[in-house]
What does this fold into?
Amino acid sequence: MNSLEQYVRENKSLFDEEPAAGHFERLQIKMERKSGRIIALRSIISIAASIAIIMSAGIVWKYAAKRDIIVICENASDMKICYLDKMNELAVQIEELMIDFDYWERQIVMNDLKNIIEAVNDDFEKELPEELPEDEAKEILSDYYRQNLEGLAMIANSVNIFF
It folds into this structure.
C-alpha cells in the first residue's frame, strides 16, 4: 500500500488535469457497447429459461396424464378390475386401428394382447408374501398392473404410427 500512496502523492497533479478531448465520448461508446452485450446476454438467458419452463411443463403434463390412470384405479374398490377394464378398452381400440392390417399380423398382435390381459387376470396377488404390509402389496400390484397397461399403450402407439 505504501507504494500506491507514494505514487498518488508524486502524481497528484496528473489527477487534477482534465482528460483529453473526446475522452468522455469514447467512454460513452464503450459503456453502450458493454450494455449491448448485457442486453444480448439477458435476452439469451430469458429465451433459454422460457424453453426450460416449456419443457418442464410438458414433462409435468405428460407425467400427470400417466398418473391419472393410476390414481383412478388405485382409488377404485377393486384395482385389478379397474386396470383390466382399461386394458380391454385399449385392446378394442387397437383392434379397431388394425382393421386394415394383414390377417396374420392382426392375429399375432391380438394374441399378444390376449396374453397380456390373461397374465394380469391370473392370480398374481397370491404370489406376494403374506407377511408383506398391505400398502406395499398394493404398491407392487399397482406397478404390475400399470406396467402391463403401459405395454398395451405402447402397442396402441405403435399401431397408430403406421397410419
Observations:
- Residues 23-74 form the longest helix (52 residues).
